[in-house]
TrEMBL record:
Any single Pfam family the record assigns to this protein: Peptidase_S66C
Origin superkingdom: Bacteria
GO molecular function: carboxypeptidase activity; serine-type peptidase activity
PANTHER family linked to this entry: MURAMOYLTETRAPEPTIDE CARBOXYPEPTIDASE (PTHR30237), MUREIN TETRAPEPTIDE CARBOXYPEPTIDASE (PTHR30237:SF2)
Name of the protein this chain belongs to: LD-carboxypeptidase
Organism of derivation: Halalkalibacter alkaliphilus
Length: 307
């Protein structure tokens, strides 16, 4: 069983880290104040405001910020300011044994995908494909907060993951499987293939989402996932949105799912509202879930935090 981090409560301290690309200081400060207004304290990583071009700071410095949050007894949760790019470069500089011994809630998506999955693989920690700092703003849908706090501030079990009203979950291949859930942003996961940090999908339920990639690129991604055995190894697939993904050669995202994933014969659910879209379901990476595409349900079977 994966390690559950301690529950998040009002009054706890949330540590902010910039693990990939930089974020404007004014945005960081404004969003941090939103979190304070919700009843939490804030700790800033030493390099949270840094700007060194494509990435905020060196891989070593960004990794040091993450490690300092894991070892700080006052910090209960680590929140990524944004994704962007470059998160993969910090992975060699993390101490996975120390992280295993100091479990914390860690949340993000986009390029943070690689960190979430590797912390689960190497430290056996449940992580959260969910909100980043930029999502704490006035126009964030209540659905997003409800999903996030149900997963991180309660020990509800089992917990059904449902889409917002009027956004139906749909199942294309029927079946019923149970296993750990892994995955996230396709671009980020593809970039790890052939490295020591590639995603392990064997016996797991794989979920995928993407943004700003034309369907020619999604075709390439499905090719790579297939040729690397990741689609064959998993026991079920959940497809999230492909946000602002242009159609190429008259072939849509839905067409590619039909052509590449349906023939695998594995339980297949589509249209999960998570990742880069307006609505963000919270997916606990490494937690045991049941994917029932006969009843069209997705259920987290265990509490994802310890109380």
């Amino acid at each position: 069983m994966a390690i559950r981090p301690p529950v998040l409560q009002r009054g706890d301290t949330i540590g902010l880290v910039t693990a990939g690309s930089p974020l404007d200081a004014n945005i960081i400060n404004t969003r941090a104040q939103t979190i304070r207004d919700m009843g939490f304290n804030i700790a800033f990583g030493r390099n949270v405001y840094s700007f060194e071009g494509i990435v905020a700071s060196s891989a070593e410095k960004r990794a040091e910020d993450i490690m300092s949050m894991f070892t700080d007894p006052n910090v209960k949760m680590i929140l990524a300011t944004r994704g962007g790019t470059g998160v993969q470069t910090i992975l060699p500089y993390l101490d996975y044994d120390v992280i295993r011994d100091n479990p914390k809630i860690i949340s993000g998506y986009s390029d943070i995908t690689v960190l979430l999955n590797i912390l689960n693989q190497f430290s056996n920690l449940i992580t959260f494909h969910s909100l980043m700092l930029g999502d704490f703003r006035a126009d964030t849908p209540s659905y997003n907060y409800n999903q996030f706090f149900q997963a991180t501030s309660t020990a509800i079990s089992p917990r059904s993951i449902q889409n917002p009203p009027n956004i139906p979950l749909m199942s294309l291949v029927q079946g019923n499987v149970t296993g750990p859930i892994v995955g996230g942003n396709m671009t980020s996961l593809i970039n790890t293939l052939g490295t020591p940090y590639e995603i392990d999908t064997k016996g797991k339920i794989l979920f995928l989402e993407e943004i700003n990639s034309p369907t020619t690129m999604i075709y390439r991604y499905f090719t790579q996932l297939s040729m690397s055995g990741k689609l064959q190894d998993c026991i079920g697939i959940i497809m999230g949105e492909c946000t602002t993904c242009p159609v190429a050669y008259g072939t849509t995202y839905a067409d590619l799912i039909r052509d590449w994933l349906v023939p695998l014969g594995k339980p297949l659910m589509v249209n999960l509202a998570t990742g880069h879209g307006n609505y963000k379901a919270t997916i606990p990476i490494g937690a045991s879930v049941n994917l029932n595409t006969i009843e069209n349900t997705l259920t987290v079977l265990e509490s994802t935090v310890s109380v």
